[in-house]
Automatic annotation (TrEMBL):
EC number: 1.14.14.1
Requisite cofactors: heme
CDD domains xrefs: CYP2C-like
Keywords: Endoplasmic reticulum, Heme, Iron, Membrane, Metal-binding, Microsome, Monooxygenase, Oxidoreductase
Binding residues annotated for heme, in chain numbering: 396
GO cellular component terms given for this protein: endoplasmic reticulum membrane
EC class of the enzyme, as a word: oxidoreductase
Name of this protein: unspecific monooxygenase
One Gene Ontology molecular-function label: arachidonate monooxygenase activity
């Protein structure tokens, strides 16, 4: 399969064509290995939710295996994955209910972002950098307890390495490397840069972990690293304990990789869509004025009183289809699925596009329309087809955090600024720029006019 075909193989259009010919479950050969594709809500739900345990493996991702060696949450399997995921979810929950809970941190970051946007004085700017800073800083405050100034040198290097790794991992060349792993060791290319970046991040994190060890108070954990070190002390008598420093560094790396670029890209795409559809923006800003007003920060309690804003954010995530296939799954044992026998270890790809763009659930799925998530009375309407974070056992561990960030950051921006486009809304291009893994918005500029 040639490179361009390989790059596009996961897009909804091709998946649609294959599913018409072969049904909702079919096999593609990416390189020399068979990959089972699941198309449509019924097949995805049956595999990832109803038979979640059997489909809970992480599929083949040779480049990640080479660098991360099976540590952390995202690319691990078996008992290690279960332990790390359970710990991560529990710790995020603990930090959410702690003395300075996560909502406070996100609200503070949203205000810092507004102050930074005020400095543009309404002149045209590309929002990419500044929208990356906010989610990255939220992760920093969860992991290290403190946020960084947007001009802090250490923070900028850290963010640059994380962003560069996500970009390279998403590139078409990396998809080729993952399909033909023998290329990894013998070919020059951007994949070697990832190894350097990961080593830099690892040594930076190990230094931070060392500082935490020296100031640790087991009765008063401050952040993610503290919780991990306390857990490590509790289980260090268990021979098979998964709580090594290697696993901590890799889990933090996962939190940065998964929690920064995806959220900042969604925010960037959301602003582009709000420029394209000023009538939607006007309705959202009217709701913010009515429910929140101008004199306090938006909070999560407001969301239940803001059905249109909630629907708009859900529709952004549905429409942009950020990760059309999510990350590959694998079956954990020989599995009889529908009329097929899938051998243990086979990679399985779920087409999230086919679920998010299902025309029975979302009339005119190619249109951006918040009413997809509203009922006849204008109240918010939930949908089982809303799967931008994937679903089942491998659903994104940071889903709750990401949803909180999207709501608080977008409402805080719209509470404080009028968004002004440099071109007429009709001329705004919202076509995604596909790379090998995610759908990115095309580059654009806008003006943040203070209200």
């Amino acid at each position: 399969m040639e490179m361009e075909t390989l790059r596009k193989v996961t897009t909804s259009c091709l998946s649609q064509q294959f599913s018409k010919a072969y049904g909702p479950v079919f096999t593609l050969y990416l390189g020399s290995k068979p990959t089972v594709i699941l198309h449509g809500y019924e097949a995805v739900k049956e595999a990832l939710i109803d038979r979640g345990e059997e489909f809970a493996g992480r599929g083949s991702f040779p480049m990640a295996e080479k660098i991360i060696k099976g540590f952390g949450v995202v690319f691990s399997n078996g008992n290690r994955w279960k332990e790390m995921r359970r710990f991560t979810l529990m710790t995020l929950r603990n930090l959410g209910m702690g003395k300075r809970n996560i909502e406070d941190r996100v609200q503070e970051e949203a205000q810092c972002l507004v102050e930074e946007l005020r400095k543009t004085k309404g002149s045209p700017c590309d929002p990419t950098f500044i929208l990356s800073c906010a989610p990255c800083n939220v992760i920093c405050s969860i992991i290290f307890q403190n946020r960084f100034d947007y001009k802090d040198k250490e923070f900028l290097i850290l963010m640059d390495k994380v962003n560069e790794n996500v970009k390279i991992l998403s590139s078409p060349w990396l998809q080729v490397c993952n399909s033909f792993p023998s290329l990894i060791d013998y070919c020059p290319g951007s994949h070697h840069k990832i190894v350097k970046n990961v080593n830099y991040l690892k040594s930076y994190l190990l230094e931070k972990i060392k500082e935490h060890k020296e100031s640790l108070d087991v009765t008063n954990p401050r952040d993610f690293i503290d919780y991990y070190l306390i857990k490590q002390k509790q289980v260090n008598h268990i021979e098979q304990s998964e709580f090594s420093l290697e696993n901590l560094a890799s889990t933090i790396n996962d939190l940065f990789g998964a929690g920064t670029e995806t959220t900042s890209t969604t925010l960037r795409y959301a602003l582009l869509l709000l420029l394209k559809y000023p009538d939607v923006t006007a309705k959202v800003q009217e709701e913010i004025d009515r429910v929140v007003g101008r004199h306090r920060s938006p909070c999560m309690q407001d969301r239940s009183h803001m059905p249109y804003t909630d629907a708009m954010i859900h529709e952004v995530q549905r429409f942009i289809d950020l990760l059309p296939t999510s990350l590959p799954h694998a079956v954990t044992c020989d599995t009889k699925f529908r009329k097929y026998l899938i051998p243990k270890g086979t990679t399985v790809i779920a087409s999230l596009s086919s679920v998010l763009h299902d025309s029975k659930e979302f009339p005119n799925p190619e249109m951006f329309d918040p009413s997809h998530f509203l009922n006849g009375n204008g109240n918010f309407k939930k949908s089982d087809y809303f799967m931008p974070f994937s679903t089942g056992k491998r659903i994104c561990a940071g889903e709750g955090l990401a949803r909180m960030e999207l709501f608080l950051i977008l409402t805080t921006i719209l509470q404080n600024f009028k968004l002004k486009s440099l071109v007429h809304p009709k001329e705004i291009d919202i076509t995604p720029v596909m790379n090998g893994f995610a759908s990115l918005p095309p580059p654009y500029q806008l003006c943040f006019i203070p209200l």
